[in-house]
Structure formats: C-alpha cells, structure tokens
Amino acid sequence: MLLRIDHVGIACHNLNEKIEFYESVFGLTVVSREINEEQGVREAMLHVADGDQGASYVQLLEPLHPDTAVGKFLAKRGEGVHHVGYGVTDITKALEEISAKGVRLVDERPRHGSMGASIAFLHPKDIGGVLTELVETSRR
Ligand code: CMX
Ligand code: CO
Questions:
Q1: What is the DSSP secondary structure assignment for residue 130, as one 8-state letter?
Q2: ipTM over 0.90
Q3: pLDDT given for residue 138 in this prediction
Q4: Does residue 129's CB lie within 6 angstroms of at least one atom of ligand 1?
Q5: Which end of the chain is more exposed for a tag (fewer CB within 10 A), N or C?
Q6: What is the tens place of the pLDDT at every residue in 8-42?
Q7: Three-class HEC string of 44-112
Q8: Facing residues of 46 across strands?
C-alpha cells in the first residue's frame, strides 16, 4: 500500500531561517514554496532524492497562526519532526482500507497538499504517536 516515504514534515518557527539551514548543511534545493490556508501553514519542499516510485522531500512548516495544527505542536513540543508522509497510488482506496482496520482518520476525504498532491492525515494516537500523512502525488 505504501510506495515510499514522500516527505518528512518538520515544524519550525522561522521558515526562511530553516530553509537556509537545510540548504547550507545538506545542499538541498527548494522546489516549491506555498501558503496552504486550509492547513494553516507556510511551507517549503526541499528535494532529497528520486526513486523508482517517485521523489522524496523534506517539508519545512511554519504556522500561519498559533491556533493551527503546527502552531499548537510548536507550543507543546517545540521544533522538530511533525509528521511522516507516505506515497500511495490510490489515496481514497488506502483511506478505506486503513479505516477498516480501526485507525482513526483525521481526514475522511483527501485535501489539497503541496505541488498539487492529494493528502490525508491519520490520527497520531492510533499510529503509536506518529502523525501520518498519505500522499497521492500528481508529479510523476
Ligand atoms: N505528532 C504526534 N502527536 C501529535 C501531533 C503530532 N504532529 N500533533 C498532536 N499530537 C498529539 C498531542 O500531543 C496530543 O496528545 P496528548 O493528548 O497526549 O497531549 C493529541 O495529539 C491532541 O493534540 P492537540 O494539541 O490537542 O491537537 P488537536 O487534537 O487539535 O490536533 C491533530 C491533533 C493530529 C488532529 C491535528 O494536528 C491535525 O489535524 N493534523 C493534521 C493536519 C496538519 O498537521 N497540517 C499541517 C501539515 C500540512 C502538510 O503536511 O501539508
Ligand atoms: Co506533509
């Protein structure tokens, strides 16, 4: 069901500072910068690698307001890994299958993610404390 790790989502206070850090320490390149009002984030995708099943990225996330998923996370836990995003072929089918196994879905239906992808979150409390995102990419 899971094709690859699409991205690791990292919460930060200052997006520009963190982009510079990842560029200078790891030599990564920003391939997309977006504001996603629905998700409450200003974000950047930095390309890590290409594989048979698609590319993988680091997703840097800065909250638009304190009262957002990432804003609350930062207040509670500080900067660090916020979620893991896995690539799937058919996100609607994957959500059905995962829900049938008793895992709570944060999103019953896919939403809009970075670079035109369809995304949906699974509840961290049902995945051993890991906020998990499914990604059906539109970039192939
Ligand atoms: N990883 C692990 N656990 C998390 C978490 C995370 N990222 N975020 C929240 N939690 C835990 C909290 O620690 C808390 O646990 P305790 O009750 O033991 O303290 C519990 O989940 C509830 O947390 P909360 O702060 O009260 O937050 P909410 O219940 O309001 O929201 C969640 C939690 C997962 C439903 C919400 O963060 C959400 O909808 N996330 C999905 C959307 C999102 O993260 N968007 C930003 C990224 C967008 C993108 O990737 O494109
Ligand atoms: Co993500």
A1: -
A2: yes
A3: 83
A4: yes
A5: C
A6: 999 999 999 999 999 999 999 999 999 999 999 99
A7: EEEEEEEECCEEEEEEEEEECCCCCHHHHHHHHHCCEEEEEEEECCCHHHHHHHHHHCCCCECCCCCEE
A8: 30, 58
- Expressed in angstroms and rounded, the spacing between residue 102 Cα and the centre of ligand 2 is 22
Q: What is the pLDDT of residues 96-136, one digit of tens each?
A: 999 999 999 999 999 999 999 999 999 999 999 999 999 99
Distance CA 111, CA 21 (A): 29
- The pLDDT value recorded for residue 102 is 97
**CA-closest residue to ligand 1 atom 43:** 69
Q: How far apart are CA 62 and CA 41, in angstroms?
A: 6
SS3 137: coil
Q: What is the pLDDT of residue 139?
A: 54
Q: CB-side exposure of 38: number of CA atoms within 13 Å?
A: 8
Ligand 1 pocket, residue 10 CB under 6 Å? no
Query: Could you tell me if 63 and 79 are in contact, meaning their C-beta atoms sit under 8 angstroms apart?
Result: no
